[in-house]
Design a protein that fits this description.
This protein is an alpha/beta fold. About 30% of the residues lie in helices and about 15% in strands. Strands 1-9-8-5-2-3 form a 6-stranded parallel β-sheet. Strands 4-7-6 form a 3-stranded antiparallel β-sheet. Strand 2, helix 2 and strand 3 form a beta-alpha-beta unit. Helix 1 packs across helix 2 and helix 2 packs parallel to helix 3. The radius of gyration is 17 Å and the shape is globular. The structure holds 6-phosphogluconic acid (6PG).
């Protein structure tokens, strides 16, 4: 049974335009969160699409429009490779966003990939999330102010791959998951659907014609595709899509 995904859809001709629109949402949500609670907690996405957004945020004018001293950085998923490995989602963000903005270590909540097995890493990262979000009423998941997500051509998001058991997790916030079909073929840890759907806002960034057929199925609510199951229970859902992905 498909139920169309209800969200705010913004299309732009090119990746740069959708990155600008996503930066505007980031700035709006950050200002609201900092005013409300004194900080802004964001879960970053991996993959190549968000690199342009990260670089945009780290440069004028956006770097001057956001109170970076109040921002805390997390990850929606991570590959189990060293933090300086080319496939590391942490490395992507450090190079494009965190280092240029000189974000101090106490506001960077990196997935501790070095602590042991994938399950040990998942438990350790969930512990970090619970320590940070615990003061809030024990909700079904971490109340991120913004979760950035990408979309794989197979319909995965974060590291929630079609048909994998991680999709059925209903209690834990972080789980380990084996490699998906798409590269790189490494173990990962990922936020679960309860964690993603506890967010105040979720924003997908999708670019490229290869994503068009998958995006169409996701927006139509195809339950076989993990991205279609991201529906924040008490939050907003945003899609930033370039023309190539929007026009099948
Ligand atoms: C990852 C990402 C993953 C990514 C999609 C889209 O760790 O690989 O979390 O979910 O967002 O695969 O990747 P692109 O932006 O490179 O198309």
């Amino acid at each position: 049974m498909s139920e169309a995904v209800a969200g705010h859809l913004t299309t732009a001709a090119e990746l740069e335009g959708l990155s600008e629109a996503a930066a505007a949402l980031w700035a709006k949500l950050a200002a609201e969160a900092i005013s409300r609670q004194g900080h802004f907690a964001v879960a970053l996405s991996g993959g190549s699409t968000p690199r342009g957004l990260y670089r945009l945020l780290a440069a004028a004018p956006w770097r001057d429009r956001i109170d970076w001293g109040r921002c805390h950085f997390f990850w929606g998923d991570e590959r189990l490779v060293p933090p300086d490995h080319p496939d590391s989602n942490f490395r992507l963000a450090r190079e494009a966003l965190l280092a240029p903005l000189s974000i101090p270590p106490d506001r960077i909540h990196r997935v501790p990939v070095e602590v042991g097995s994938p399950e040990t890493v998942a438990l350790a990262y969930e512990g970090e999330l619970r320590r940070f979000f615990a003061p809030e009423p024990m909700l079904e998941g971490p109340r991120f102010d913004l979760v950035l997500l990408g979309l794989g051509s197979d319909g995965h998001t974060a590291s929630l791959f079609p048909g994998k058991s991680a999709l059925e997790e209903s209690r834990r916030w972080v789980v380990a998951t084996p490699p998906g079909r798409l590269p790189p073929p490494v173990d990962r840890v990922t936020l679960t659907l309860p964690a993603l759907n506890a967010a105040r806002a979720v924003a997908f960034l999708v670019a490229g014609a290869d994503k068009a057929p998958t995006l169409r199925r996701v927006l139509a609510g195809d339950p076989d595709l993990p991205a279609a199951r991201v529906r924040p229970a008490r939050g907003s859902l945003h899609w930033f899509v370039d023309r190539a992905a929007a026009n099948p």
